Amino acid sequence: MIYDKYGEYYDLIYRVKNYDGECESLISYFKKFSKDEIKSILDVGCGTGGHSIRFAERGYNVVGVDLSEVMINQAKRKVEGRNLPVKFFVQDMRKLSLKKKFDAVLCLFGTFGYCTRDEEILKTLKRLGNHLEKDGLFIFDFFPLHTYVRRESHRSIHEVEKNKTYILRIIDTSLNLKTNIVEFKIKCKVIKNGKLVDRFEEEHKIRIFTPPEIAHLLKETGFKPLGFFKVNWQAERPYSLDSITLQTTNVACVAKNLGNRINMQS
Fold first, then answer.
1. pTM across the whole model
2. Staple partner for 42: which of 102, 180, 223, 259, CB 3.0–4.6 Å?
3. In angstroms, what CA-CA distances link 194 with 13, 189, 197, 225?
4. Where are the domains of the chain?
5. Which H helix or E strand runs over 205?
6. CATH number for the domain whose boundaries are 5-144+209-257
């Protein structure tokens, strides 16, 4: 199961991730693209709650869902006794069923790409749309095709250390041009006080897209695409309003729910 062991060490691996800057820049999307005030948020693929909790701290009513029980349990522990307006549930976005609608749905950090087949993408988009108010916003990011066409295979090495715990992560990526699926082979070693205490491997398969392809999928499922924008994880506010270029390695999409679906189960 993906995000089993990796989920256990997720917060340490991404300890410098700029959650506050990401949330603030996403709020700027709310203000620009929503005619009504955004008050409730569904965070799909919420992981250990990095975004959900920060939005709740800012006064939004938040529900976070993730397929990983390991990560949801961590998110729940983070909010114990804090009385924040946030709840966490283990759910598969392809089968999402909360019997509730939200002003905005978020699907961040490449999560959308875990839907790799056309039929599950369409099913997921319908499920997400059925959990959105009419004219509500769907905001997500994805890996663009052009980035991986330039580098059909790639290796990245990441090291992080905190409180005498050191993690070495190696990711080898390869692109299948017939399916537009990138396979991420992740290898991690965990060292505490100079001793190897854990090592594990996971394989993640993620679909990559072009903006016209995303626009078509959205229109087919009752959404209106409002724009595609550059994401720069190193920026103070990663989600920008800048136009995408061939150098853009992550793309944010903002779409509006047209609200023309028949029922909550479609």
1. 0.94
2. 102
3. 18, 12, 9, 51
4. 5-144+209-257, 146-207
5. strand 195-207
6. 3.40.50.150
Domain boundaries 146-207, corresponding CATH code: 2.20.25.110
Distance CA 184, CA 174 (A): 7
Q: What is the pLDDT along the chain (266 residues), one digit of tens a residue?
A: 678 889 999 999 999 999 999 999 999 999 999 999 999 999 999 999 999 999 999 999 999 999 999 999 999 999 999 999 999 999 999 999 998 999 999 999 999 999 999 999 999 999 999 999 999 999 999 999 998 887 767 899 999 999 899 999 999 999 999 999 999 999 999 999 999 999 999 999 999 999 999 999 999 999 999 999 999 999 999 999 999 999 999 999 999 999 875 543 44
Enter the tokens of residue 179. 């399916």
- Main-chain phi, psi angles of 207, to 5 degrees: -80, 140
How far is it, in rounded angstroms, from Cα 253 to Cα 251? Answer: 7
Q: CB under 8 Å to 164, separation ≥6 — which residues?
A: 192, 193
